[in-house]
Amino acid sequence: MAVTKSRPLSPHLSVYKMTITMAMSIMHRITGAALYIGTVLLAIWLLAAATSPEAFATVQTLWGSILGRLVLLGYTWALVHHALGGLRHFIWDSGAGFGPERRTFAQLTLVGSILITLALWALGYWVR
User: Which of 84, 78, 82, 76 is nearest to 105 (CA)?
Assistant: First the structure.
């Protein structure tokens, strides 16, 4: 007769209340995955530039469209958000930031990524 052990059950997500630090952790993973796709788009642009003026013009037309610019805006935000999340994790790795300030760091990551992205795009349009 086989003896069956009672296995402990992992707490389900419904047990936890979603916090901003949990949401930023999830977003950090999502933006990391999105950066793979954005890097492929960047590589396509670079390959087109290296291939021919016609290929570059085609890619520039795609990236210059409304949809292309929205994708590039999302890529910019993902890059900035992931970088700021990385800085937040670097602070945690040093042993700091685990007190009440962890919520503030998470909020700054979100707000800062939006503001920096908008500033970068405004600068890009201003220089253009």
Answer: 84
The residue ranges of every structural domain in the chain are: 21-94+101-127
Question: pLDDT per residue over 59-104, tens digit each?
Answer: 999 999 999 999 999 999 999 999 999 999 899 889 888 888 889 9
For 21-94+101-127, CATH number out of 1.20.1250.20, 1.20.1300.10, 3.30.457.10, 3.90.550.10 equals: 1.20.1300.10
